[in-house]
Amino acid sequence: MLIVDEAQVAEWRELRERVCAAGPDEQVDLLRGQARRIRRSIIEMIDAAGQGHIGGDLSVTDILTTLYGAVLRIDPADPHRRDRDRLILSKGHCAAALYSSLAFAGYFSPSELGTFMSPFSALNGHPNRTKVPGVETNTGPLGHGLPVGVGEAKGAKILRADYRVFVVLGDGEMQEGSNWEALMSAAQHRLDNLTAVIDRNRLQQGARTEDTNGLDPLDERLAAFGWEVRIIDGHDHLQLLDGFAPSTTGRPVAVIANTVKGKGVSFMEDRVEWHHKVPDPDQVRAALDELAATA
Amino acid sequence: MSELTIADAPTYDNRVAFAEELADLARADERIVAVCNDSVGSSNLVAFKREFPDRLVNVGIAEQNMVGVGAGLAAAGLVPFVCAAAPFLTGRALEQIKADVAYSQHPVILCGMSPGMAYGELGPTHHSVEDLSWLRPLPGLDIVVPADRRQTRLAVRHAAMHPRATFIRVGRHKVPDVTTDDDVLARGKFLLQRPGGDVTVIATGTMVARALDAADRLEVNGVSARVLNAAYIAPLDIDAITAAARQTRAIVTVEEANVAGGLGAAVASVVSQLETGARVPMRILGLHEFAPTGSTDLLFEYFELTAPRIADAARQLLGP
């Protein structure tokens, strides 16, 4: 059982209140600081576990930090609150980024992050909602998150609830047919309370997306499927905040967040081998130094 | 005690009972929604759609999305009955059933319509005879196979009142009533349809009526057959299987499903682990190949899923 840290929850509430009340510049500064803590945590978790999906964790960090830090209406002290906003990490292999975000959001103690993928830990290599507070549905196999998000968004419409649903997907994951089934049905049901965020780092496990089963023109394809499309820099917190604003068209929103796989650690950036390569001790030190230096 | 009339009794389509019960419950409970894949007609949801247009989610011909949407609706606090032809619901969306429903423990009620060989001449692509083998290994997923219209109603009612990840097999080809108003549907329990001391016939779904017919035929020959209605395949009724092995001399299982991994395999795995004296001989009746072209009834003959063949299997096991 994970230890829920009451002090952490209180600190988080205070931080969120500050972030939400802050002007744009200060808000961005606070989120940037939080993202840096999460990136360092990811490096430490993967170093301790000896495995993990480091490249995608680092590309999705700013997206998750912005959502948990300033966008989602959540209450980590009451993870199942009916009116909470939902975030589904469909690219479930990037669990280290999610667990760090949840811990720093106050769902459980950050000290638990040290158990990542250790025997019998709640923090499996792919997230499990029955074990980790804040996880909405179990993911791992690709192409599952968006259909579940469509169901949650449709559920809100049926129940006349006003919560929002965010689904964070990998770009390689957009090769799964189930996502295109879900894109069609979300538009058909006019789910303007649903936002799909595509972490467009242009790399998948084995090669570049465009050399594998190309997605471009992704924006035109999504628009043709009936979605409101926004293209942003997925590492710019100001653009992320704008990108996550509610739909203005009555249609579901697709945010194409252009990112860099391995972001923040120069020798990992945009290199396919860091999909799930584990850094050696020298590389861990260099990565942590670099993340500290950019503070 | 069944009378010799089971073979001649009037028969009913379980889907009708399913649809009526679902609508009854939906009137009382606003959380109940139906999800389907363009199967409004074949899932018997026409009346539901008319009465609750906002609570029928038709996702079109997209089964993977359909099951994921069901999981999301359950996560939102609704009680989704996800309805589709059983072969496509279970085969096409198997990973969604595993990850989004069973492993995630979202209380989705998956309704596999027209299972087994109900689609006859449409062929093996449309026969749902692998579903039990595919779903049995999934922890946390109940599997319910109602034998008649009354048990179908009970299964739907139970799922609506105690939502949990569940697969209900809703038969299409008509079957007679085998249960009475006194019979309950208890989770994880087989229903004792008929007591008997020589041989036990464990049948599921549409095969229960045939097993009772077989028991009638055996009785004429002086053989006392116990008949168990395996309405729940998961959780499995280990106690009833153990008692059958200890108290009768042989077990015959009957299912409208492939024998690899289905009801018979489940029963055999229990029997094989009993003490030496209780490991009774078994015969597992079901499919062992893709069906040839034929009507449902012809295919039942071909795969020996008829009352005379069930009785023959029991007699052979008991010996002279």
Main attributes of the structure:
heterodimer, A: 295 residues, alpha/beta, 5-stranded parallel β-sheet, 5 strands, 10% strand, B: 320 residues, 7-stranded mixed β-sheet, 5-stranded mixed β-sheet, 14 strands
- Cα distance spanning the termini of chain B: 26 Å
| Helical percentage of chain B | 25-40%
Give the DSSP E fraction of chain A (strand runs of 2 or more residues): 5-15%
Alpha carbon gyration radius of chain B: 19 Å
Give me the oligomer status.
heterodimer
State the secondary-structure class of chain A. alpha/beta
Number of strands of chain B: 14
The shape of chain A is: globular
Description of the structure:
The complex is a heterodimer of chains A (295) and B (320). With 295 residues, chain A is of the alpha/beta class. Chain A is 44% helix and 10% strand. Chain A has helices at residues 6-21, 24-49, 54-71, 95-105, 145-159, 177-188, 209-212, 218-224, 237-243, 281-293; strands at residues 86-89, 165-170, 194-200, 228-233, 253-258. Chain A has a five-stranded parallel β-sheet, sandwiched between helices. In chain A, helix 1 (6-21) runs antiparallel to helix 2 (24-49), helix 2 (24-49) packs antiparallel against helix 10 (281-293) and helix 3 (54-71) packs parallel to helix 4 (95-105). The two termini of chain A are 33 Å apart. Helices cover 38% and strands 20% of the residues of chain B. Chain B has twelve helices and 14 strands. In chain B, strands 3-2-4-5-7-6-12 form a seven-stranded mixed β-sheet, with helices on both faces. In chain B, strands 9-11-10-13-14 form a five-stranded mixed β-sheet, with helices on both faces. In chain B, strands 1-8 form a two-stranded antiparallel ribbon. Chain B starts with 10 loop residues before the first strand and ends with a helix. At the A-B interface, helix 5 and helix 6 of A face helix 3 and helix 5 of B.
Outline:
With 295 residues, chain A is an alpha/beta fold. In chain A, 44% of the residues lie in helices and 10% in strands. In chain A, helix 2 packs antiparallel against helix 10.
